[in-house]
Amino acid sequence: MKAERKGSNSGFHFYSLYGCCQRKFYLRMGPPRLEPIFTPSPLLIGSAFHGGKALFYRTGKEKLALTLIRDELKDRKAEFEDRDEYLTALDRTPAMLASWIAEYGKDDLKNLNIIDVEKSIKVPFPGRPDWHMTMRLDMVAEDRFDNLLVYETKSTQWSMIATALYVSLGDQATTYIGGAEHYYKRRVTAVVPDITFFAKNAKQDSSIKNYRGEFVYREPEHVKFFYRSMAQAASEITQKMKAVYSGHDPAIFPRNSFYCVAYGRPCEFAEICRMNLTAKSKVPPGFRKRAGRFKAPEIFEPVDDLISGG
């Protein structure tokens, strides 16, 4: 399950990172190839929660799903920077899934026709069918009215309202709708936000709240525009990466200081992003080299006439 959820160099978060902060994108994906030794605990919690939820959908076995969560967190213990954060995650994350199963999970198995869980797909860019965006659909189902729905799983200890707004206004939902329509060859009615919230300072499991937000819709022209925009971003990334690997000034990947505290905490790259780091630079404390070099075969090639519209 953990391997299935490994990030892609052509997925939504790849392009989202480039849009949020090109400097961080360069440090992670470009010649420096840096990543923090430790992983933020919300990402570790979210990964385990996704895995447990997917296993419950596939098997209907709550105990097995809760065991998977604990096993994954134990397996990734070394990625937690703080021992207390690890112990807290080990205690709280299974409780979040148990709450969700009781409120929504069991009913979903009875009332929905579940088509796919954690389904990985590729969608060609407009005008360039040999280039793709990849994605993983959390859950796809039909309801009793034959609506095709994509359920987007979110776990948070920060804000349920803000998380719901992120799903409603963000383009991950747009990505999912376009991808699912391409793969299943039918109209997707909506994305359904499926949020589990356990406030960071809450002590009791009874504080956990599960929320199925309002349906998130996208008009066909909005989906088409989004994918044309991502194709343009792919072209831009390709040209800039080729330039820096050929010795061009990495300042073509500028900082975005707003993103430094966009999630209410300092970006993990905040202390090093002003450094003139290259492939030959000494690895800063708290970081390690990512394996290999920039590899995104769908986009890392000569670019001509990328966009044909449509």
Write a structural description.
The chain is of the alpha+beta class and 310 residues long. 41% of the residues lie in helices and 18% in strands. Strands 2-3-4-5-6 form a five-stranded mixed beta sheet, sandwiched between helices. α1 crosses α2, α4 runs antiparallel to α5 and α7 crosses α8.
TL;DR?
By secondary structure, the protein is of the alpha+beta class.
Helix-strand blueprint:
Blueprint: H1 12-20, H2 22-29, E1 34-36, H3 41-59, H4 62-75, H5 83-111, E2 113-125, E3 128-142, E4 148-156, H6 160-169, H7 172-184, E5 190-197, E6 209-212, H8 220-245, E7 287-289
Parallel strand pairs: 4-5
Antiparallel strand pairs: 1-7, 2-3, 3-4, 5-6
The share of residues in helices is: 40-55%
Biggest sheet: strands, sense, closure? 5 strands, mixed
Query: Could you spell the SSE succession in H and E letters?
Result: HHEHHHEEEHHEEHE
What share of residues are in beta strands? Answer: 15-25%
Highlighted features:
alpha+beta; five-stranded mixed sheet; 8 helices; disordered N terminus; 310 residues; two-stranded antiparallel ribbon
